[in-house]
Design a protein that fits this description.
Length: 323
């Protein structure tokens, strides 16, 4: 049995769906916060709830009593935990730093405290982020190199989760895989992310702000490739006999400029956007680039979906969802 935290979120929804299609039992947990429009979270859940092996609990991970009340009876059945609940977004963290401490660090500690003595738990796979590389991300850094220079509270909270995982591995012999995601995009994506806003604005003929004059570079990664690589990690490590506490990049090794990404979006929608070019925002990284050398060797990391194909799929989903 799997516990997926953040199951109503973008990545949590896709991972839950994949596992349910494989006939696995999934317990989903999410507090359905209002960081972005909740309606899309409920729409995602509606799909997951069609599977009889899916059970959902609306719980805040910070609420120890409620969490224990609802999850205690499954505690000794849950073998794998995929922890995707958390507060995402670099820009939001500049103005709301406290929520990152609460929902990324504190809630993670609460989850680990709950499961630290579980006899059944084999592996905790948790979401970290490419942002932990700071500006060193432009140097094609290997995931095994220690990082110490985050430039936002968001990335510092993710780096803290990596450190905390080391602690629980050492104290309680819990097994961990951290995954650093790189700008994930695709159907059912996050409305706060650039590509999503872009599609809404282009549809409504409204102008859109392009940060750093479109010169940011990102390893844009299609959601199906994220799911594919997480499934590979689970297969490889779920029965690991040795103590495990590692971190991997999951991301398209091809880093492209925002300008190029916009160009493909425009060509694929057949519409030109009204663009307002603005300067770089504090906390934003200039470049993220996913180095998957280690990942290819260890679990055969793959990037299957080319940008144009991913964008076409995103656009066709967006059209059908916002009819
Ligand atoms: N999407 C990306 O490009 C990306 C990149 C790097 C890292 N990440 C990380 O991956 C994880 C999943 O990202 P996502 O894009 O699916 O984000 P998301 O916001 O769509 O999903 C996160 C879910 O967690 C829930 N949540 C937040 N705090 C909670 C709490 N205290 N208790 C219970 N539920 C809570 C939210 O309601 C939300 O549905 C996040 O940790 C994010 O920081 C995502």
């Amino acid at each position: 049995m799997y516990l997926i935290t953040g199951a109503a979120g973008f990545i949590g929804f896709h991972i839950s769906l994949e596992l349910l299609k494989k006939n696995e039992k999934v317990i989903g947990v999410d507090n359905i916060n209002n960081y972005y429009d909740k309606r899309i979270k409920y729409s995602r859940l509606k799909i997951l709830k069609q599977f009889p092996k899916f059970k959902f609990f609306k719980i805040d991970l910070n609420n120890k009593i409620n969490f224990s009340k609802k999850i205690n009876k499954y505690k000794n059945k849950i073998e794998l935990i995929i922890h995707l609940a958390g507060q995402a977004g670099v820009r939001y963290s500049i103005f709301n730093p406290g929520t990152y401490i609460q929902n990324n660090i504190m809630s993670y500690v609460q989850l680990l405290e709950f499961f630290k003595n579980s006899s059944k738990n084999k592996l905790i796979l948790y979401a970290s982020s490419s942002s932990i590389y700071g500006e060193a991300g432009s140097k094609n850094t290997l995931s095994s190199e220690a990082q110490t220079k985050p430039i936002s509270v968001y990335s510092a909270s993710k780096l803290s989760m990596e450190l905390i995982s080391n602690v629980y591995n050492s104290l309680y012999k819990m097994n961990f895989i951290g995954v650093r995601f790189f700008s994930v995009y695709g159907p059912w994506g996050r409305p706060d992310m650039f590509y999503f806003k872009f599609l809404q604005k282009i549809k409504n003929n409204k102008p859109i702000e392009i940060y750093n004059f479109g010169n940011h570079h990102r390893s844009f990664t299609y959601i199906d490739d994220v799911v594919l690589n997480i499934m590979k990690l689970i297969k490889k490590f779920k029965n690991s006999k040795r103590s495990l506490c590692d971190i991997f990049n999951i991301g398209n090794p091809k880093s492209i400029s925002l300008k190029k990404f916009i160009d493909v979006l425009e060509k694929s929608t057949g519409k030109k956007a009204k663009k307002i070019y603005t300067k770089k925002h504090p906390g934003d990284l200039t470049v993220t680039r996913s180095n998957v050398k280690r990942e290819k060797n260890i679990f055969n990391h793959e990037t299957r979906v080319p940008l144009k194909e991913g964008i076409m799929k995103l656009i066709s989903w967006h059209k059908s969802y916002y009819k």
